[in-house]
Amino acid sequence: MASAAGGIRRIAINTGGGDAPGLNAVIRATTLAALREGWEVLGIRRGYMGILEGEVDGEPGVFPLTAQAVRGITHLGGTILGTTTRGNPFGLEVRKPDGTWGKVDRSEEIVEAFRRLEIDALVAIGGDGSLNIADALHRKGLPVIGVPKTIDNDLRATDTTFGFQTAVEVATDAIGRLHSTAEAHQRAMVVQLMGRHTGWIALHSGLAGGADVILIPEIPYSIHAVAEKIRDRDAHGRRFSIIVVAEGALQRGGDPSYADESGRYGGIAERVAADIEAVTGKETRTLVLGHIQRGGEPNAYDRNLALRFGAAAVRCIREGSLGTMVALQGNRVVAVPLAEAVAEIKRVPLDDDMVITGRQLGVSFGD
Ligand code: F6P
């Protein structure tokens, strides 16, 4: 593997973790910019699984990304490389002969495969989990550039991640549509949005969509404060309410989270709705928006951010700036040390301007 830009001949790209609108735009930009440097580009399927599993269903696990292969994909959702949330090479789940599950570390095989395939750098497109894996591989000697992806927008070193704005638009549209049916039936409607540890999607779409209550993990809520807001609206003739809740929202002094053993989140909307009915007697319905927030075409902002990140990753490799993650800071795309970028997630500050604005407009955060 080459350690400096001068020796670059071949790079690889992978996408890991949950998908986000804009992944294909990054793949296209990275590939086209790299080809123009005279480098070869390989795509690895399903995170690192393409290397570990090899050919599946007649498709090679690693294949050349040509200009033809990335033609016309900027606007497409998903990822042409495929992805997985169960592909951590440092702890791959395997079934043991006795039927129980265990974990094995196959990271050395990844490093070895990069040597064998003479790949000089990896562009790893991922969120918190995938970038932690990329950082660990970098420390094992695999030259990596990270590209921050997640609809949750919870990566600290970058102002925003691609996919976030599209998710906010989808959620805002859903909240907007709930208004007419909520008003027609004089109901409370609870809509659960993604955001395991942070409330960025709930905050931004809740405010844009005119939610009356926004519950986020950063501000533990009291059901009595939520009920008070609903009663107050009823008393003023607004006999319906929209309650937006991030999937990781917490009740003050209550259960720490609504994740099941596999770490999957769900159930908070049902919980909030049941509590609202119990405390206010108001008829309440729920909507769990789910993976629609991640699906479909990226909006123009996310396409452009993704294209910029892909091109910047190639500049980083050219300049020998490895072990870094590209990040948006102000209007500039910069490179930050990968280890620093993944050290901590970005939570909504309590004095965030969106929170302050919401409070000034009478939005309840349940506190
Ligand atoms: O991309 C992050 C995220 O959207 C979280 O908000 C959510 O909890 C998670 O992905 C769900 O992903 P999956 O169902 O693919 O495990």
Number of helices: 11
Secondary-structure element series: EHEHEEEHEHEHEHEHEHEHEEHH
Percentage of residues in DSSP E strands: 15-25%
Low-confidence stretches: none
* Rg over C-alpha atoms, rounded to the nearest angstrom: 22 Å
N-to-C CA distance: 54 Å
Mean pLDDT over the full residue set: 95
- Seen as an oligomer or otherwise, the chain set is single chain
How are the SSEs placed, and which strands pair?
Blueprint: E1 10-15, H1 23-36, E2 40-44, H2 49-53, E3 62-64, E4 92-95, E5 101-104, H3 107-116, E6 121-126, H4 128-139, E7 144-148, H5 164-185, E8 188-193, H6 200-209, E9 213-215, H7 223-235, E10 241-246, H8 268-280, E11 284-288, H9 300-318, E12 324-329, E13 332-337, H10 338-341, H11 353-360
Helix pairs in contact: 1-9, 5-6, 7-8
Bound molecules: 6-O-phosphono-beta-D-fructofuranose.
6-O-phosphono-beta-D-fructofuranose binds next to loops.
